Amino acid sequence: MNAPAPKTIYLKDYQVPDYLIDTTDLNVDIHDGYTLVSCMLALRRNPAAKQAATELTLQGADLELVSLSLDGRLLEEGDYTFGEESLTIFNTPETFTLITITKIKPESNTSLEGLYRSRTMYCTQCEAEGFRKITYYLDRPDVMSEFTTKVIADKKYPVLLSNGNLIEQGDAGEERHYAIWHDPFKKPAYLFALVAGDLAHIEDSFSTSSGRAVTLRIFVEPKDLDKCDHAMASLKHAMRWDEEVYGREYDLDIFMIVAVDDFNMGAMENKGLNIFNTSCVLAKPETTTDVGFQRVEGVVAHEYFHNWSGNRVTCRDWFQLSLKEGFTVYRDSEFSADMGSRTVKRVEDVTLLRTLQFAEDAGPMAHPIRPESYIEISNFYTMTVYEKGAEVIRMLANLLGKENFRKGTDLYFDRHDGQAVTTEDFVTALADASGRDLSQFKRWYSQAGTPRLDVTDYYDEDAQTYSLTIKQSCPPTPECQNKLPFHIPIAMGLLGSAGDLPLYLQGSQPDFETSDNTHRVLELTDAEQTFVFERVQEKPVPSLLRGFSAPVKLNYAYSTRDLILLMSRDSDGFSRWEASQQLGLQAISAAMAAYQQERSLDGFSLSAQLVDAYRRVLQDASLDQAMVAYMLTLPSEAYISELADVIDVEAIHYSRQAVRKALANALADDFTRIYQSYDHRQPYAATADAIATRSLKNVALAYLMLIHDEGSIRACEQQYRHGNNMTDVMAALTQLVNSEAPLAQEYSLAALADFFGRWQHESLVVNQWLSVQAGCQLPDTLSRVRALLQHSAYDGKNPNKIRSLIGAFCNGNAINFHSGNGEGYAFLADQIIQLNRQNPQIASRLLTPLTKWKKYDHVRQQLMKAQLERIRAEPELSKDVFEVVSKSLA
Ligand code: TRP
Ligand code: ZN
């Protein structure tokens, strides 16, 4: 018999807490091997509770209770009782003081939730429910308390940090010392943080718009002190941006970031003391790629922005997670757009959404951005809550317009400062401030699945009218079979032979005021609607969903000619890119059809008109180089798979490869010109322009490497050896590793050995070395991955290492992971079984590729399912893994 299934928590069961905690006084006494936590709570019955409670249930996990006293009286057996993960105290009065003393073992905490040790330091991770692993508490976000924290430790940990302001420090006898921190802002326990370690820091300062000085510090292990400047610059940009764009100022005298190497996610917004995965804070050109630099900028901003969207105004319960995450992702995305190129950032966000989020929304774990139930909340830090959540905020911002959206967010922050609220409260504030009716729009919060738009059109030459008929539908998802129509903003324009046409939409005024009347947003609210444009003098090509104005799948039967027109002429940069992707998909589909008939693609070639169109993109001097690079990058295997009904792993892989090779051959001269005109001696800069030129040059290199000529292979090897920055070095190494050409293979072995020799002491660089090998598309990669698991560079307890090796193989290497004999699936299951007890959050996340089993052919389905069943049969499954496995098999 298995243990009883863990219980499901429902949104509809929400009740206010019985007690409130006015103040929390913590005393955290760190010793080698154990830590004593004394916690004093000032409790008071919640006046808003339906009934006056006479008992108090606190959450706690993996705690050893040393003592418990109520208003100074030591409690005994009979005064309290233990539940599975709780402690209930009987006969509790109206108000009282509770002191608990518990003993914990951070050194053996491998889950990386609560207080744990990472390399040389102690640190915490409390979101979502990690605080209960530190002490007994009302561990829920609507219980907000004023925290005072005393940290005591050996002086070999000179830096002792917690939230808020440092109010006292001093000696604590025999080589020990203490620090007391006080956070004046009430906060839920999930925002608590503590750090003790031998850390170095860089310091800067920021003067807020109202003239207050804020000290900024970034703490790292001393070896990493040379990699903090980019994060500090990003932080200052983010602070200024939030003042300018949202009128939000920082509110404490100090803001701190600590970099930690063992971390389950990217970073955490603890009040005044953000804790970061080293991968999201450390950066320097020699060790970090352009993508890495951009990630640091984005994540630093994201966590900083949480100070308002998340901390000052927090969530009532975890079903409201998107209240802070969707909004904050939207904020950080707009910030990055303002720091770099807006269109490029949009393309990157949409790419992520359409591959990973759409796939999630079509699978067994599909949920609305405000889920209705969960077993383990850690499983709901998802692409849907974050990325689709951000898209929903983006639609609101666009529907309201800049001014009204700002009025709405001002009202939201004003009205709810210091409160724990719901997504409903957020939308209400926007509706109140703008006067817009958002009642139908709210369905985006409660209905899962990706809506599908089917668009047909009709041009009436005599009447000079053009009609667009748009039908919306949404596939059933686990919790909802029949969906009500969504409110969908569709940004659009009409292209004539000479460019954008003026728009005269029947029943509405032309818009010459805010634009030149060639662009507008159609609001689709019915299951089917027809929009009629007048005074249309030629049959237009519709440019639909400009800027990806809604997270939907749009179907319109574009001809190749239409797409080429859109790609070269649309006034919306996003649409031009989108047309390039549709063209790529058409070419890949043609190759797939050929492959599925013959299982061979020898002699596959592209039409002259397609090649010409891509050539014009390469030669278009008006385009941002980053856009050229993205337009020349074919849709990923993951995106093609998402679009397929049944994923044919080999057909997708080999067809995409064939189209790439055909493009490489047809455009070799242009790629050579681009590659050779790049000056590899220029000093590195992480500016948008420099990143753009580098990425186009590296796209050109990738194509040239498909031709297998000796010149390109030698150039690639030169770039590996002499590259003055990690972007170029990695780009070259990736090409060498993935090339079938014997000369490239020879170089790649030498380069991999050289790379490890050079960087073995830089953990984050070693991670890239693991990933490039795990991502190798050539045969036999799984044995290489298995061997790397035994390599001294690997550490099976470190999430970054796990993601770089196992994650990269299972998520980024379909042709090998989905190998027909099922060995990839068995390999992943082995890893998950091992991680299940050690680190349930990571184990559960690694499961994702197996959850998609229903999308594959019958043989693969059986193989994947067998591994899921094997995992399900394991004794002592964590809640995290149990939830994902059981929902996948349901
Ligand atoms: N709130 C964090 C963010 O999005 C993410 C987060 C949630 C997290 N749970 C975590 C980070 C656990 C680390 C570990 O910014
Ligand atoms: Zn966040």
Q: Explain this structure to me?
A:
With 890 residues, this protein is an alpha+beta fold. Among the domains are: 18-198, Immunoglobulin-like (Sandwich), CATH 2.60.40.1730; 314-446, Neutral Protease Domain 2 (Neutral Protease, domain 2); 452-485 and 487-557, Sandwich (Immunoglobulin-like). The protein is 41% helix and 21% strand. The chain has 27 helices and 33 strands. An 8-stranded mixed sheet has the order 6-5-9-3-2-12-15-14, with no helix packed on it. A hairpin with a 2-residue loop joins β2 (19-31) and β3. α1 (229-246) packs across α2 (290-305), α4 (342-361) packs across α5 and α23 runs antiparallel to α24 (840-846). 50% of the residues are buried. Bound molecules: tryptophan (TRP) and zinc ion (ZN). Residues 302, 306, 325, 328 line the site of zinc ion.
